[in-house]
Every structure is written in structure tokens, then in C-alpha cells.
Design goal:
- By secondary structure, this protein is mainly β.
- The chain has 2 domains: 434 residues, Methylamine Dehydrogenase, Chain H; 113 residues, Immunoglobulin-like, CATH 2.60.40.
- Helices cover 3% and strands 36% of the residues.
- The chain has 3 helices and 47 strands.
- Strands 21, 22, 36, 38, 41, 45, 46 and 47 form an 8-stranded mixed beta sheet that branches. Strands 7-6-3-2-39-40 form a 6-stranded antiparallel beta sheet, with no helix packed on it. Strands 35, 37, 42, 43 and 44 form a 5-stranded antiparallel beta sheet that branches.
- The longest helix has 7 residues.
- The protein starts with 5 loop residues before the first helix and ends with a strand.
- Bound molecules: 2-acetamido-2-deoxy-beta-D-glucopyranose (10 copies).
- One 2-acetamido-2-deoxy-beta-D-glucopyranose (NAG) binds next to loops.
Length: 554
């Protein structure tokens, strides 16, 4: 039995008790904030940043949903979307997707024809973004966005999916295809693009086993590509190692201690910790799952009780033959947080609230302070509280890494008709950037600047490349590392298709030119270490990251 019906709940019910609560939320206060700074980039981008993807053009695709009224940005002159399936406006002349240009800080409206709400996606190896599913008339649709042109728009493939996909998770595979896993009432997976050998969907009983009959706490499963080529899938409170070609669970990991649910609507977050490549191999593959809402939080929130969010993280070494979870405690409770891999290997935990659960109107007490998790510090010295924002970022907020090292932050609990008043948290159309402390101006003398290769360079698997950079001071050449990060698709507190590789590099050496250095680096050996496609490559000097360059691995 379903305890809640999303569509009715979200679209028609403007009569929650909580809507009438005045905006006087207490906020969690930081004990000691140590770093990072915030900037409001735009007070409005016209839509709510519910889903975000950085493109290799340094533009960001952003979309919300098509069926909840007129947004704050019009489609170009004369263009309207007429959709008999729309619940609110059958004819809508506003945009529900935009392309945000990082460099010029401007937005361009885009046209999505069908509902992209709670969809999934990933950047393909050719740089196009493929997004799958959504709600209502959009649930079987595949949408392709060509990022190589300056005025492209979405192209939609009506029956691109075998099954409806709503709250599914996607990942790029070593062969460059995407896998699309689960979604509401979909205990199966499929691939995109389809090949003759894989044109149907394949059952995944693990999603039945983790589907609590009252609340489906296994939506938007946390999926990572293990460096052995299999998938790690975490849903609710359990995880498995899965061979998608054989359709076989190879291993069941121990349940996360405490057994609390971590996926939507409990909405914790997760990262695949940095992968250190040594002679083509990765010995340690670790997953970190943080926060969420306790069992029963959704039903309690419906009844007006906002449970304290989880403050624990579980970390597991999935390459260990006998892996065990190690639990750690965050400085704050957090539900609907986003975990973002930073170029220096740290993890930023940002957005969300300290009470309630995922779902419209069900979060309380925004956590305005991000926290940086330093994975390789001693276990009692990993969390650093950062300076707070002033804007609550609750349900449907997003955060992604930009190539310049900043983290783009947008969205929050939106409302039907984009209401801004008489709601607990107003619909939030603004876009902010959080600059981690490695971007502090007083560190500019220590920051590397990459001179070569040039951005957009193509690199081959297992190739040796020389990365040349400058630093405005004499440096200790032992303190240099080179990292590569895949641009993830972020929605609902999870970044799909995460990968941060710390490349195998020699000691940096100084070249003849003043303050110019070079480091020899070996690119990843194969697709299971790094699926083909676009990555941002950074030089890191003592935790301080350069601006990245785009590289294309093939
Ligand atoms: C967006 O909001 C601004 C400020 O409220 C308003 O002036 C403008 O007309 C709105 N634009 C659209 C297209 O709704
Ligand atoms: C994407 O756009 C570029 C530039 O307009 C074009 O050359 C390319 O063919 C397009 N790619 C696809 C797959 O349509
Ligand atoms: C998955 O199983 C297939 C079929 O047995 C096998 O060819 C493949 O190597 C396996 N994949 C991994 C990553 O082990
Ligand atoms: C893990 O989740 C399942 C499904 O909701 C639940 O039955 C089980 O009790 C949970 N484990 C613990 C230890 O709470
Ligand atoms: C919610 O509150 C109502 C009214 O107090 C009560 O009847 C119901 O049992 C509660 N439901 C849950 C799941 O606690
Ligand atoms: C939030 O959770 C804490 C811890 O459980 C609790 O003490 C507090 O009353 C809750 N706040 C709200 C507004 O429900
Ligand atoms: C993870 O497991 C691998 C393989 O057993 C082992 O070599 C490594 O030391 C472990 N790392 C951590 C951090 O536990
Ligand atoms: C939201 O906006 C619509 C349209 O302006 C209005 O009819 C409705 O009453 C608003 N809802 C709330 C809770 O203010
Ligand atoms: C840089 O400035 C920040 C304040 O903006 C300060 O907290 C930090 O300690 C400074 N760092 C260094 C290395 O001077
Ligand atoms: C990098 O490798 C090239 C070619 O293998 C070699 O000529 C060069 O000296 C190396 N540079 C460093 C810094 O090791």
C-alpha cells in the first residue's frame, strides 16, 4: 500500500497545514565555521534548479517540471507549449529548462515538451546529455541535448524507454552506454542507447527486496561503477555488487549499521570516494553514505511531526573481501544534503535540513552551513564546518562542481504555481556559488595554473601525458597531484555518474622557465577505471586546486 500519492499530493493539494506556517524557522547554528565563501550569482534564473548538469561547454543544463504553472522566464517570442496532459496550464509560454552560461552568468530558455520532473540522466561520451524519463507524459521519453552548439535545444524521443522511469538512477558504463536503474514501481533496469543484444528491460529483485511496502525508501538508488567493472547499488539500508551483463548479484554487503533508510524519500546522499590509480589499478574503492531521515519520518511529517534527520555517515571499503561499515558522526543532522566531490579529493556536504524528510513541504530547519569531509584525515578530524549561506536549500535543491572549482547551488522546495508567499519555504529561483577555501584569494600565490594540455584535449587510455603548469611561488614538487572528475548529473540529493580519479603521476619537476613545472601523468588504463567521455582535469598543490581543463578520454 502506498502511504502517499505523489501526483495528488504535489499537484493538487495546496491545503497542507504547513503551508500556512509563517517563515520563522530556526536554523542550525555552526559551532565554528572555518572556511568557504558564498556569492549570489543571480536572484533569478526563471526556474527552480531541481536538476543540474555541467556540460563541456561550461554551460549548465537546468530544468524543473513542466506541469506546475508559469515560470519566471518566457520561451522565445511566440513559442508556447500546448500539452493536454498538463495539470495546471494546457498552454504554457514559459520555459521549464534553461541553459546557464557560467562565464557570462546568463541564462537562455529551452523548450522541454514533456515532463522532466524527477528524471535521471548522464553526459554521454560524445558530450551530449541524455536524460531519461520523468512524470506523466514524460515517463517513457529520452531527451538528448547536444552540447556542441551554442543555440541547440532538447530533442525528444517519445518511446525511448521500455519502462516508465521516475526516480531512477543512471550511470555511464565502461562501453559508453548508460544504464537506467529502477524508478518508482520499476524493479528492473535497461540501457540507453539500445542495442540488439540489450533492447528490453531486465529484472532486479534487489529493488523488490529493498522496497518497503509502506514507503518506498529505495528510490534514486545510489549507484557507482566499481573499478572491477561491476555496479555497487545501495537502496534503502542495503547494498549489493551487481554484474549487469549477467544480471547477477555477486555479493551482498552488510546492512548499514542502524538499518535506517538512506534513499528517497529518506534522502541521504552518497559519494564514491576518490580512486587512487597506481600502475593502472585501483586498490581501494570506498563509498560514503551520509544523512537521511529515520524510519517513519515520512509518515510522521505527513502528520506534522518533523523527526530529527540522521547525523551519521557510513563508510565501506567495497574492494575489501570482507567489508565492514565504519560509522562517523557529522556535525549536523542532515536530510536532503548533496555530497559533491571537490577537485582536491575532499567531499562537500551541502544543502538540506535537519528535520523532516524528502518530499514537498516535509523538511524543516535548513542546515545553512556546508561541511567539508576530508576522507584521509584521522577519523576524528574529518568534518570541517563551513561558512553559511543565507538561503535555505530544502527539497529539490541541487549542487554541482564547476570547472573553476566553485560549487553551483540552486533550487529549493518549489510550489505549484511557483508560489513565493504563504508557503513554508518559498519557491527559490536564485543561483549561488559556494567557493571552497582553496579559492580564497589569499591562497592565489600557491594555486597552480595549467598551461598544457589545452582544454578540450583528447587523451587515450593508458597514455602518458605531460601536464605543465605555473605556480607563483617556489613549490615543494612532492606536493603535486593530478585529479580527474566526471561531471555528474545532480537531482534529489544524489549526483549520478560520479568519479574522481587521482592519477598516477611522477614527481613534478621544474622546467627551464621561471615558476613553470611539469608532471608526467598516466591516463586511466580502461573503461572500467574511467568510462569514456569528458572529465575535468585539475592540478592540486597542497589541497589547492587549479582551475580545471576539459579532457576527453577515449
Ligand atoms: C519574473 O519576475 C520578475 C520579478 O518579479 C518580474 O518582473 C518578471 O515579469 C517575471 N518574468 C516572467 C517572465 O514571469
Ligand atoms: C551537435 O551540434 C554540432 C554543432 O552544431 C554538430 O556539428 C553536430 O553534428 C551535432 N551532433 C549531433 C549528434 O547532432
Ligand atoms: C559479468 O558477467 C559476464 C558474463 O559472465 C562476464 O563476461 C563479465 O566479465 C562480468 N563482468 C564483470 C565486470 O565481472
Ligand atoms: C532495513 O530495511 C528493511 C526494509 O525497510 C527493514 O525491514 C529492516 O528492519 C531494516 N533494518 C533495520 C536493522 O532496521
Ligand atoms: C496521524 O495522525 C492521525 C490523527 O492524529 C492518527 O489517527 C494517525 O494514526 C496518525 N498516523 C500515523 C501514521 O501516525
Ligand atoms: C528536530 O529534531 C530534533 C531532534 O530530534 C528535535 O529535538 C526538534 O524538536 C525537531 N524540531 C522540529 C521543528 O520538529
Ligand atoms: C580496502 O580493501 C583493500 C583490499 O582488501 C585493502 O588493500 C585496503 O587496505 C583497504 N582499505 C581501507 C581503507 O580499508
Ligand atoms: C499559489 O498561487 C496561486 C496562483 O497565484 C494561488 O491561487 C494560490 O492560492 C497560491 N497558493 C498559496 C498557498 O498561496
Ligand atoms: C585566508 O583568509 C581567510 C579569511 O578570508 C582566513 O580565514 C585564512 O586563515 C587565510 N589563510 C591564509 C593562508 O592566510
Ligand atoms: C615525462 O616523460 C617524457 C617522455 O616519456 C620525458 O621526456 C620527460 O622527461 C618526463 N618528464 C618528467 C617531469 O618526468
Amino acid at each position: 500500500m502506498m502511504a502517499y500519492g505523489f501526483s495528488q499530493l504535489v499537484i493538487f493539494s495546496a491545503s497542507f497545514v504547513c503551508i500556512f506556517i509563517i517563515q520563522s524557522y530556526p536554523t542550525t547554528v555552526a559551532a565554528a565555521s572555518t572556511g568557504g565563501s558564498w556569492a549570489l550569482l543571480r536572484s533569478t534564473i526563471g526556474i527552480s534548479a531541481m536538476h543540474m548538469q555541467l556540460l563541456p561547454s561550461d554551460r549548465v543544463l537546468i530544468f524543473d517540471r513542466t506541469d506546475f504553472g508559469a515560470s519566471n522566464i518566457s520561451l522565445p517570442e511566440g513559442i508556447c507549449r500546448e500539452d493536454p496532459h498538463d495539470y495546471v496550464l494546457k498552454k504554457d509560454c514559459t520555459a521549464h529548462s534553461v541553459e546557464y552560461d557560467v562565464v557570462s552568468n546568463s541564462v537562455r530558455p529551452l523548450m522541454v515538451l514533456t515532463d522532466v520532473w524527477c528524471s535521471s540522466g548522464a553526459l554521454m561520451p560524445d558530450g551530449s546529455f541524455v536524460q531519461t524519463g520523468g512524470f506523466n507524459d514524460g515517463d517513457h521519453v529520452v531527451r538528448v541535448y547536444n552540447s556542441s552548439c551554442s543555440n541547440c535545444d532538447w530533442e525528444e524521443i517519445d518511446s525511448g524507454l521500455v519502462n516508465r522511469r521516475w526516480y531512477a538512477t543512471n550511470h555511464i558504463l565502461p562501453d559508453g552506454r548508460q544504464i537506467v536503474i529502477g524508478g518508482r514501481r520499476q524493479f528492473n533496469y535497461e540501457f540507453y542507447p539500445k542495442t540488439p543484444a540489450s533492447e528490453k528491460s531486465y529484472s532486479l529483485p534487489f529493488l523488490v527486496q529493498t522496497n518497503d511496502p509502506n514507503i518506498e525508501n529505495n528510490l534514486y538508488p545510489f549507484v557507482f561503477l566499481h573499478t572491477d567493472g561491476n555496479l555497487f547499488i545501495f537502496a534503502n539500508n542495503r547494498s549489493v555488487l551487481f554484474n549487469y551483463s549477467r544480471n547477477k548479484v555477486l555479493k551482498t554487503f552488510p546492512e548499514i549499521p542502524g538499518g535506517e533508510p538512506r534513499n528517497y524519500p529518506s534522502t541521504g546522499s552518497a559519494v564514491l570516494l576518490p580512486l587512487r590509480v597506481v600502475q593502472g589499478n585501483v586498490a581501494v574503492v570506498e563509498v560514503l553514505v551520509c544523512g537521511g531521515a529515520p524510519k517513519g519520518a515520512f509518515v510522521n511529517a505527513q502528520n506534522g511531526t518533523f523527526d530529527g534527520a540522521l547525523n551519521s555517515c557510513g563508510r565501506i571499503n567495497i574492494s575489501d573481501p570482507d567489508p565492514k561499515w565504519v560509522m562517523e558522526i557529522m556535525p549536523f543532522r542532515r536530510v536532503m544534503g548533496d555530497m559533491v566531490l571537490l577537485p582536491n579529493g575532499d567531499v562537500l556536504i551541502i544543502n538540506g535540513g535537519s528535520n523532516g524528510t524528502g518530499g514537498w513541504e516535509y523538511g524543516r530547519n535548513p542546515v545553512l552551513n556546508p561541511v567539508v569531509y576530508r576522507p584521509y584525515n584521522p577519523i576524528d578530524a574529518r568534518f570541517d564546518v563551513q561558512n553559511p549561506s543565507v538561503i535555505p536549500r530544502m527539497y529539490h535543491s541541487t549542487a554541482i562542481l564547476l570547472r573553476d572549482g566553485r560549487v553551483l547551488v540552486g533550487g529549493s522546495n518549489p510550489h505549484v504555481y511557483y508560489n513565493f508567499t504563504n508557503v513554508v519555504y518559498p519557491t527559490e529561483l536564485s543561483l549561488e556559488a559556494f567557493s571552497p577555501s582553496y579559492l580564497d584569494p589569499n591562497l592565489s600565490g600557491l594555486r597552480p595554473k595549467i598551461i598544457s594540455p589545452v582544454s578540450q584535449s583528447k587523451i587515450l587510455y593508458g597514455e602518458q601525458i605531460v601536464v605543465r603548469f605555473t605556480v607563483q611561488t617556489q613549490i615543494d614538487v612532492n606536493l603535486i597531484s593530478v585529479t580527474m572528475i566526471a561531471p555528474s548529473f545532480n537531482t534529489h540529493s544524489f549526483s549520478m555518474n560520479q568519479r574522481l580519479l587521482v592519477l598516477d603521476s611522477g614527481k613534478a619537476t621544474k622546467t627551464l622557465e621561471k615558476l613553470t613545472y611539469e608532471v608526467n601523468t598516466t591516463t586511466p588504463s580502461a573503461g572500467h577505471i574511467a568510462p569514456p567521455g569528458y572529465y575535468m582535469l585539475f592540478v592540486v598543490h597542497q589541497e589547492i586546486a587549479s582551475e580545471g581543463i576539459w579532457v576527453v578520454v577515449s
